[in-house]
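Human: Cast an eye over this sequence-structure pair and say how the chain folds.
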Amino acid sequence: MVEMMENRTWDEISVGDSATLTRTCRMEDVELFGVATGDHNPTHYLAEQAQQLAHHRKVLAHSMWGGSLVSALLGNELPGPGTIYKSQDFDFVQAVEVGDTLTLTVTVVEKNAPNLLSFNCLAVNQKAETVFQGHASVYAPTVKVMQPKMELHEVSLRRRHHVFEDIIERCRPLAPISVAVCHPCDPVSLEGPMDAYKIGLINPILVGPEAKIRSLAAELNFDLTGVRIIDTQHSHESAEKAVALCRSGEAEALMKGSLHTDEMMHEVARRDIGLRTGRRISHVFVMDVPTYPKTLMISDAAINIYPTLEDKVDICQNAIDLAHCLDVPKPKVAILSAVETVYPKINSTIEAAALCKMADRGQITGGELDGPLAFDNAISMEAAKIKKIVSPVAGQADILLVPDLEAGNMLAKQLSYLAEADAAGIVLGARVPIVLTSRADSAKARLASCAVAVLFAHARRVKAAKVAAE
């Protein structure tokens, strides 16, 4: 049924007529009002600031948030559609805390031809305390209007992108690590490591055709003074030499340049002179999703196309180890499938159940696993509750372990393009962390990928020193 709006014209209104509105103040209301007005007063957003500066235990709403409700009451109810504000004068007596319920009443006290109305305005809280009082004058409509209620755009809050800034900031007190940059022969692949070098994240070793790299640097106004360059003839040689630097320990991380990922990873995966370890190599997306309350990791979306159960053990462990480096002490791992129950015809549900049991037996450590879980109940507490899923992971996952590369790649890109997420990528399971950047990556994402590699490399240093001391 369509909800209708009907006004009351000047002729229909008498002195003494009144209208009432009741509204509870939510934190979302305060934040939206702040966004709309640009008011950054910390007493409206931080409880400790409200307590310190205004002697209130809770966050305080903007005074004019309450005042704006008078405008809504006049425009919607009395007189209603067609009302035009002339003036208002309010005396704010009591602060409004988040959670307070205001009841506003406007009462006609004077009519002046041709169509001016004056109102007494009063707002009281749930304790019947006066919050504000005053007067408002409006020009009342003279033409009768009855129409469907306006459908406004839905507005929701999302948190500001901050995950990558926090990761980069954590690296500032750390010494830069040496990074072999493989074939940085286009603007994007050279900008990434040089930007990271400028802010002290890494010491790049540029591996590629020296003349081409220097020419490109000149075009981009990059100063290569102090930057080591290893000359090569072609991309295949660049991959060989960059991997060799990592294998020898001269470089603590590897970064992809303008060559194809398969060409570099072929050298990484070589059994004789590559960077393989006893663990499966896998890729992890570190996602900053504004609509999700914390860092979200997705694996594997770039290396293992159709991973086996044995592969997934390593993929899961790699992601957990990375989460530890990002200060998530016991990451919650949601093992994704199309459904949240074990269904023999969907192999990923069986593998999810097996992975959970393997974690119970200590074959996967450092995280809290649950699965199978569908995407909705992995990231939404409400969805998990509707499905009656009782789980410490459901609705609050830190890591999404996807069934295969196709699912993971589509999921990561959907979050990037439909949820405005940022994604940083890193490959783990090799002797060194490997930064895989894409031409579509933002400068911030490329820096974040470097920063993740720095944190991982430093964690390895600490672990190696601990083992040596023992």
In short: DSSP finds 14 helices and 18 strands in the chain.
